[in-house]
TrEMBL record:
Example of a GO cellular component annotation carried by this entry: membrane
Keywords attached to this entry: Membrane, Transmembrane, Transmembrane helix
Record's protein name: Signal transduction histidine kinase internal region domain-containing protein
Domain of life: Bacteria
Domain Signal transduction histidine kinase internal region: from-to ranges: 156-235
Membrane spanning stretches: 7-27, 39-60, 72-91, 122-140
Amino acid sequence: MNKKQEIRYHLIFWILFIIMEVFSDIVLKDNLNSFNLYLLHNIEFLLLQIGVFYIVYSWLAPKCVPQKKWGNLFLGLLGILLLFAALRYIFEEVILYAITGYHNYYPDSLRPLYYIFDNSYYAFRIFLLALVFYFVKHLLNTKQEINALKLKKKQAELRALKSQLSPHFLFNTLNSFYAEALDVNSKLSDDILKLSEMLRYITYEQEKEFVFLKEELRFLENYISLFQRRFDDNLFIEKSFPKNTKNYKIPALLLLHFIENTFKHGVLDNREEPVFLKLTIMDEYLEFSLNNAIKTDQHLDVGGIGYKNIEQRLHLLFKKTYELKHFQKENRYFVFLKIPLKN
């Protein structure tokens, strides 16, 4: 419900409310002996009811209904009964009496308990009407929010579907290249297949928070293999991956950053100082260690933005249950990461 609709419905309600009140007074022949006095008292009483209505509608109900604080709402009702009686007494028996010289109640009816009891009907009526109006508004707004979320979800699914059209075309093209190269150059066809698997993995798996460890290791194997092809097999790396990964899961593409950093800044073509990469599973934890030679005149920024982003991600996922160390010692750079494995 938008603001214009809300105002329109409230105006219609108050017009109908006033008509019903006037009709009721005509039927009961109440206060018709003095039109001016009748008009003054009824305007005052209407304004009092409108004021109490919007105290409930705009303040009390929003604080209690969404949070389901029904006890507070009941206490609010008691407060409204007392407030209504007190305000009516001040307006009619003090202010208007000083102006007109007339009491709205007989003297015997002005006893506090009787006065509160007599006004509780009007106060409860306004309280109930305001509460019904708020419930209707709350239900309509909730329904609109749900519909809006459903629409956003559909739009997101449509965008995701559109974004998959190009990758699908690329995968199909690579598969065609693979089929054509299979009988011509088996090594080239293997590389095309690895590239296709890597692109598929990056496209679909990175959206997941956790992926199977065996799939992540396969991706890293393909990544390293393609880099070795780029270096004409002059990339020297000694690696060790666990064979039995069970159904363990780790965050998607978490380890790629460290290997990319090594391939970007490390010395890769020195047979005497190869890259050492080792992953082991120990007591439901994955231990990742990597070290590589760096150029003698090179100093790596161990506090760079890449590592800060990694540490933020690790903290969000594992809080204080992970360990990350990275440092430079002489001409080699070391990384050690230990994270809990997810089943």
